[in-house]
Amino acid sequence: MSDTAAAVVRAYYKTLRQGDPLPPYFLVDESTTKFGISEGAFGYDAVADALESQTETTTDWTVESHGLEVTEHGEYATFADEVTMAWTDLEAGTDRRFETRWSGTLVRRDAVESKTRSDGSGSETNDDSSADRTDGPAWLFRTMHVSTADKL
Known about the structure:
Elements: H1 5-18, E1 33-35, E2 40-42, H2 44-57, E3 58-65, E4 69-73, E5 76-89, E6 94-108, H3 109-119, E7 139-148
Parallel strand pairs: 1-7
Antiparallel strand pairs: 1-2, 3-5, 4-5, 5-6, 6-7
């Protein structure tokens, strides 16, 4: 996987389309936050649970980026995009489609690993740490916000 934040965002979209696990893209930390179209999750555990539930209850994802903008700022990056999303809700048996706006921040994995090693506090991570996943993305989402102007 590429080491740019933009490549990680694109890989996340691809992973969502394929129905593969999404939690490895998020920082394992109490400060990690994800807002979806109709829900919010605070802390890595809640984010991971929400993503796992989403994967289990949806299928046939379409994720089309219409203007991804990513800026790297040393150890952090910001992103924004307009995305057409569509999927099948297996529980309701319906197809859903939204024009959405995405934004958020990412942190460089090696910055988290370095901080954890240097201060020994482990404050950024827990025992199931994102820093321990050496085969994961080079950047991790700390925050992600997905919204739509559509009425729900």
